[in-house]
Amino acid sequence: MSLDLIIFIVLSALTLASAIGVVITRNPITSVLLLILTFFCISGHYLLMNAQFLAIVNIIVYAGAIMVLFLFVIMLMNLNKDTEPQKSTMVQFAGVISGGCLLLVILMAFQSSGIELTQTSTTVSNIGLIKVLGKKLFTDFVFPFEISSVLFLSAMIGTVVLGKKDDDIATAIQDS
Amino acid sequence: MGGMLGIVAAAILGVVMMFVGLISQKSSVIRIAGVACFLILVGVTAFDFSAIHEQGTQLYFNNMLSVGIKASWFNVLISACAFIYILIFNNHITKVGKNDAEYFALMLFIMVGVFMLSTYNHLLILFIGIEILSIPQYILAGSDKENIKSNEASLKYFLMGAFSTGILLMGITLIYGSVGSFEIGNIATAFQGEVTALPMIGVILLIIAFGFKVSAAPMHWWTADVYDGTPTAITPFMATIVKVAAFIGFINLFHGAFGNIHYSWKLTIAILICVTLFIGNITAVFQQSVKRMLAYSSIAQAGFMLFAVFALNDTAEKSIIYYGVSYTLASIGVFAVLIKLKDYTYEGFNGLGKSHPLYAITATVCLLSLAGIPVTSGFFAKYFVLTAAMEQGLWLGIIVFAVLMAAISIYYYFRVIRAMYFTSSTEEITIESNPMEQILLVINAVLVVLLGLFPQFILG
């Protein structure tokens, strides 16, 4: 058993355990902290696959920025108690059954498709480096890279349009 | 040169529109600029079309975009439809909220997504295209900020849309995992004869994700609330142009990439068609509000458009363009009259035939077209998609079922017509009418009929 395989198994077990923990825990804070752990584990997987840049970005963006946002929301809305509404057992049962079916189908598909799980070759290892990635982005993938700016621009417009306080609305709320 | 100028122009015009909002706060200036932007867009796509007409299919950016003659003709038609929509609704759009220029800018960005969906040749472009199509819509749905229903529509659409994006990505991942390429052509060559279960799950997940975007049952639950809650000036844009674009993306993918394994997904689509037609039509019958009825009718129309996905032939690809244009024009015509009324229930239409004959006539023509009565374009649209399915052969059952459902749809469309002509109203309906708008509505109604008389114009 190679070292890579041992690391992979340990990381996978940790990822799955913490991901399941995110869903089943009732306390939002614990949930978010477990989610951070999940992201770190996924970053570990990226490192195993020689995607160093992706691993770093995953930690900075997800575990750093977005999770802090999550914690802020929980703090501001005071959600630290177990306030999850009770769902009926029927719904829970249906959810478990349909989720289980999907899991089963995907597992069987992976098994029957006969894809060989090969080790990423470490010789052509520079694909995950920032220099190579940057070159790819500005040559082969320049169109999706540039057109994404339209997507982000419209998202930014949305934040301003929906978030900005209109003067009329402010006075209307004061009057009522 | 030419072919993808439409994408470039739509993106630039969107930014220009934002600057117009910065320079002038007057809604009249913004409206004129918005109309001008869409007019330019029609011109640019027409230029693209003529270039493609001369040069044949063009590939851009390492085969990421493939602009063929059909795709660029679709671009011209859809921008023309968007232009008509903007012409009729521009003063209503500026009444929705405070950020007039941004609404036009967001619609122009949606057009970028529309053009990407009609010309993509790479799953990555498909994904970004769908996102560019969707995200401005979430914002537009919530543009009436004081209205709680608008807020609900926006949030509901956003959450459900984000979920369906996840499913789309999962499907793309599974396809990539088994083929090793994002390109439509490579996928088509890889999928021949028997395929393994792994890409099949990918195909199913893609059907679910696209079914959500085109509001096919059983992924339709968001549609009624979102279309109902969205400001009436925005709803026709979402229900028509965006939905038709999603269909074009759907067909490009399933005919282009999964055409060789048609046997494996045609049954799924057939079931989807039956469920969509049944739920859309039956639920529409029980609606009290005309706006909600139109939302359910748009689900029913999606059921008919799914026939074009189901039938894997040339007729199908032509008929979806025809169906899209016909459905878009007819819906715009009905919504243009609906937005004038204060009461959106059927009673609100009472006596409209007497008090405002012109509005009633145009609405009637459009409703007839939606119901698929001969002479109007709606009839030929339904005829062509069903012909495409017939050519596919051996699936007579669902075609009979579709015709039966079309007959049911006549009930709820005619209920509006009956309210307008055969029920008198106790109170006078007051509509502020301006001659410019009346002329546009008449032109729209005439187009609906003319397209029915000369379908060759679009199909040719």
How would you summarize this macromolecular structure in one to three sentences?
With 176 residues, chain A is mainly α. Chain A is 76% helix and 0% strand.
Word description of this protein:
The complex is a heterodimer of chains A (176) and B (460). Chain A is an all-alpha fold and 176 residues long. Helices cover 76% and strands 0% of the residues of chain A. Among the domains of chain A are: 1-80, NADH-ubiquinone/plastoquinone oxidoreductase chain 6, subunit NuoJ (Four Helix Bundle (Hemerythrin (Met), subunit A)); 141-176. Chain B is mainly alpha-helical. Helix content of chain B is 78%, strand content 1%. Chain B has 19 helices and two strands. Chain B has helices at residues 5-23, 27-55, 69-96, 100-119, 123-141, 148-179, 184-190, 197-213, 221-229, 235-256, 262-285, 290-310, 314-338, 352-355, 357-371, 377-392, 396-422, 435-453, 456-459; strands at residues 58-60, 65-67. Chain B has a two-stranded antiparallel sheet with strand order 1-2. In chain B, a hairpin with a 4-residue loop joins strand 1 (58-60) and strand 2 (65-67). The two termini of chain B are 24 Å apart. Chain A binds chain B through residues 105-106, 108-110, 112-115, 140-144, 147-148, 150-151, 153-155, 157-158, 160-162, 164, 166, 168-169, 172, and chain B through 7, 11, 14-15, 18, 60-62, 64-65, 97-99, 102, 105-106, 109, 112, 116, 122, 124-125, 128, 131-132, 135-136, 138-139, 142-143, 145-146, 154, 177-178, 196-198, 200-201.
Features:
heterodimer, A: 176 residues, mainly alpha, 7 helices, 76% helix, B: 460 residues, 2 domains, 19 helices, 78% helix
Furnish the topology, listing elements before pairings.
The complex is a heterodimer of chains A (176) and B (460).
Chain A: H1 3-24, H2 28-48, H3 52-77, H4 89-113, H5 130-138, H6 142-163, H7 167-175
Helix pairs in contact in A: 1-2, 2-3
Chain B: H1 5-23, H2 27-55, E1 58-60, E2 65-67, H3 69-96, H4 100-119, H5 123-141, H6 148-179, H7 184-190, H8 197-213, H9 221-229, H10 235-256, H11 262-285, H12 290-310, H13 314-338, H14 352-355, H15 357-371, H16 377-392, H17 396-422, H18 435-453, H19 456-459
Antiparallel strand pairs in B: 1-2
Helix pairs in contact in B: 1-2, 1-4, 2-3, 2-4, 3-4, 3-10, 3-13, 4-5, 4-10, 5-6, 5-10, 6-8, 6-9, 8-11, 9-12, 10-12, 10-13, 11-12, 11-17, 12-13, 12-16, 12-17, 13-15, 13-16, 13-18, 15-17, 15-18, 16-18
